[in-house]
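Thread: quick sanity check before group meeting

JM: Hey all, I'm pulling together slides for Thursday and realized we never actually wrote out the predicted structure for the chain we discussed last week. Dropping the sequence here so it's in one place. If anyone has concerns about the input, flag it before I start.
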Amino acid sequence: MVSIMKHAVGTLRILSILLLGVSPTLAADPNVEVEDGRFLIGKTPVPSGCFQRLMTELNGDDVTRSIYLTRASVRGCINSNEPGRDVDYSIVADKGDRIYEVRICEQVDGSMGADCATLIVQFNVYPYILGDQIKNVLSLDKLGER
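JM (edit): ok, ran it. Output follows.
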């Protein structure tokens, strides 16, 4: 009887993880605010470098869909040791449901001067499995480009 109960609890736990993974809105809502044209998580500004990591590279590589802004352990992009290159962003449009169009421009060497992109991004909270615990982490997801 005890082993059946442990199996049932384990199955429910896995099911809840899968449900949270499919629907991030089932997790806690992200605390994202816009102030003076900048995104804030709590009162911490989201660095421009976090958006830069979602840009398509000059060589055409488009390999990053999502980044952790916060983490359950160690650091996320918000408090990363890698601030990013000379880059800035501006909010173009609020599409609702935590979806935004964001224009990112990165200074580059040579005659090009700058590499700019308009990304469609969404802030979401996802479950993060850390050992036998499940923690919610805030992520920035790239949904597309203009």
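AS: nice. The chain is about 20% helix and 40% strand. The chain has one domain: 2-145.
JM: adding both to the slides.
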